[in-house]
Amino acid sequence: MGRKIILDCDPGHDDAVAILLALGNDNIDLLGITTIGGNQTLHKVTYNALAVLEQAHAYSVPVAAGCASPLIRELETAPGVHGDTGLDGVDLPKPSHDVIGKHAVDFIIDTIMGNEPKTITLVPTGPLTNIAMAVRKEPRIVERVKEVVLMGGGIHVGNWSAVAEFNIKVDPEAAHVVFNASWPVTMIGLNLTHQALCTPARQRDIESIGTPTADFVSHLMDFFRKSYAENQGFVDPPVHDPCAVAYLLDPEVITTRKAPIDIETKGDLTLGMTVADLRAPAPADCHTQFGEKLDVDRFWGLIHDAIAHIGEGIDK
């Protein structure tokens, strides 16, 4: 059995790759996918999650739809980056399965409370609304979760404002709840994920696998490259979300640094900023850390191997 995770996401091109990375490695036990309004509306990203599982023939992974909007704010989506569907650029397979009859927040709580303490890792790669709601509804999950490894934020870098990353800025109040809970938090932010660029050479390496899923990922990257060039000024697109899964597969892929991290929820210019205190070594009881340096070759090797492992489909 692999490491047990719940992937809370808003697919999203890079979320789709994160799902495939988790599916294609036997060292991950993907207990379920929970969805959150973010890159696109909840209905669209939930459909996308089901379609990605269909692409990989991963029929037994449950999907639970979660919160459609942030705790107190209106939802912001990112069609300029991910298109009208959230996964523009590919013909999505029609899902043969539907979501389970349980809200994502309840799925998260029930799964954590139903397993041994410190055996489940939460991997949020979208806004943190579902996770914050689960903490508020059942605070005991905080002491039972092994750790939270999230894609969001950034150290001195933003993409949805000068200083704020999309996932955090969409629901900064939820992020404040998650970062201030006492569980271990590893933040995989833009300062790290901007090192995970899908260059043409990396894309050709994936294409060389020669399977339908490899072609699926390559077409995703074609659209992602174009949208990032037009909207974010990147020549090659950064593939953010798989970095969080890669860290769980091989911690040596990412060099981390401990630091107190909190979320700005009130600033007119700094709303959603992840504020890391780097003035001195982190105190002994610091429960937050951030990714600092990516081993790029090892990272893309994990993605290549996972897609190759999926092959024509994993039938599980």
UniProtKB/TrEMBL annotation:
GO terms for cellular component: cytosol. Residues 5-300 form the Inosine/uridine-preferring nucleoside hydrolase domain. Keywords: Glycosidase, Hydrolase. The keyword Hydrolase applies. The keyword Hydrolase applies. It comes from Bifidobacterium aquikefiri. InterPro entries: I/U_nuclsd_hydro_CS, Inosine/uridine_hydrolase_dom, IUNH, Ribo_hydro-like. This is Ribonucleoside hydrolase. One of its GO terms (biological process) is purine nucleoside catabolic process. Signal peptide: none annotated. GO terms for molecular function: purine nucleosidase activity; uridine nucleosidase activity.
